[in-house]
Amino acid sequence: MKELESKKGFICDMDGVIYHGSTLLPGAKEFVDWLQKEEKDFLFLTNNSSKTRKELQMKLQTMGINVEEKHFYTSALATASFLRKQCPGGSAYVIGDTGLTNAMYNVGFLMNNADPDYVVLGETRTYNYEMMEKATQLVMKGAKLIGCNYDVTGPVDGGIAPATRALISPIEMASGKQAYFVGKPNPLMMRHGLNTLDVANEDAVIIGDRMDTDIVAGIEAGIDTVLVLSGVTSIETMKEFAYRPRYIFDGVGDVIK
Predict the structure, then answer these.
(1) What is the pLDDT of residues 141-196, one digit of tens each?
(2) Does the domain formed by 85-181 have CATH 3.30.540.10?
(3) Which of 244, 241, 212, 240 shows the shortest CA–CA distance to 226?
(4) Are 146 and 168 spatial neighbours (Cβ–Cβ below 8 Å)?
(5) Which of 32, 36, 88, 246 lies 20 to 30 Å (CA to CA) from residue 65?
(6) Does the reported pTM lie above 0.90?
(7) Sign of CA dihedral 96, 99, 100, 102
(8) What residue ranges do the domains of the chain occupy?
(9) How far is the C-alpha of 145 from the C-alpha of 256, rounded, in Å?
(10) Same fold across 2-47+184-256 and 85-181
């Protein structure tokens, strides 16, 4: 515990770690208060693409946690940054919420449902068959298929809901094309997190609830990993993977106990 508390930089997931849907998880506020009191460098690195930085800041604020906007980075921002470098001034057919559409607009991408360079998909509650059909047709005409993250499911109030990889799967199957996923565990996302924290790998740690994104991302980036059991992973499902986290806790509040 002393070794963990001595870390200088903390990369922290949000869904299943800080909150579950609209419910603040036990110990989360105390953990964030500790980060600020100890003047730790920290970044909330979330695969959820639906919200903007400001919306995430306001969500935590309503839960009693006050954090500056600079401490948030999403898979939507990572996706927009990646596409801006790949195809400056390009266009996309975007299926997603405000976090994704705003990020795409902010890097100069045009919304295009006729002949886009890319079809980009993130989390959304407005997904329907018409969108799926349109996206499939555009991909078959040559648009490249991009997923904001690799998550199959995500925690919501009342349980688990389909996430980006589940939503994009029908388009992959119908078009015969494979999507490229930008969020964790893609090194692009982790590189931004580590560059933002500006700490050495041995001084950083990632805290998450998913073995297939958070934990493997940390292992491959060469930083210590903390799995919390407050999200989608249990001790039983953890054993299905060939790798293990460095630390395992019931919740993020246990990190500072």
Answers:
(1) 999 999 999 999 887 777 788 999 999 999 999 999 999 999 999 999 999 999 99
(2) no
(3) 244
(4) no
(5) 246
(6) yes
(7) positive
(8) 2-47+184-256, 85-181
(9) 41
(10) yes
Look up the CATH architecture of domain 2-47+184-256.
3-Layer(aba) Sandwich (3.40)
92-115 confidence digits (pLDDT tens): 999 999 999 999 999 999 999 999
The number of residues in the chain equals 257
Catalytic residues: 13, 15
Give the separation between CA 23 and CA 170, rounded to whole angstroms: 31
Burial string for 104-137 (b: 16+ CB within 10 Å, else e) reads beebebeebeeebbbbbbbbbeebeeebbebbbe
Cα 192 from Cα 19, distance rounded (Å): 23
Q: Report residue 203 as tokens.
A: 């001084």
Q: How far apart are CA 49 and CA 80, in angstroms?
A: 11
- Cα 60 to Cα 19, 26, 218: the distances in Å are 9, 14, 24
